[in-house]
User: Fold Lipoprotein from Streptomyces fungicidicus.
Amino acid sequence: MGFQKDFEGRIRGLLASGAASLAILAGITGCGSDTAGDEHSNPVAAHAGSESAATPAKGPLDVAMQEKADQKKGFSLRDATGLNRYVSPAHAEEFKVCFEKEKPKLSAVILFAVRDSEACPEKVGAERKADATPNVVGVRLRAASDRLVLAGYTPQRIHVDITGEPLSKERSWSSTVCEQSPAAGTPFSADLEPRLVISASCHKD
Assistant:
């Protein structure tokens, strides 16, 4: 869908949540069809071109992003741990930088980060226990999707189904999450694709 095209490229330097919202809304369906997600960080062709070894770095992620932008460098965001969590530019103030890797041929850098509340790993890709998937049942879609993205799920891989009366995409944000998959408490995995069922009013049997 058009909403998802070039998602990461549009938000990597803007620190705006609107594009992430559009990516999630693009997955809304009334019949449960799937929308495949793209690789979550691809604005600077992170796997192409020469690159240096990752070196330790520190400081708030949003500050690092602004510094790279001021230097007219492209950048890509990565989880510093081996969990491969999505690092949301829209929530950059919630993260800190642990390592960075220069890509000279692309005039770009990869920033490896973790949440502010976490300790940086000893090396990029180090193993770490996965957090539990948050409980978003009973929460409005906008807040629910925000929690899932902050938990590490890629916006393009969050799917939304509508039950009951049809809802416009504008109204969908204020609708309540009636069901979620994976269930709350499920250990995070980058392979999971959360699915939220929303309705203007959830009915309990």
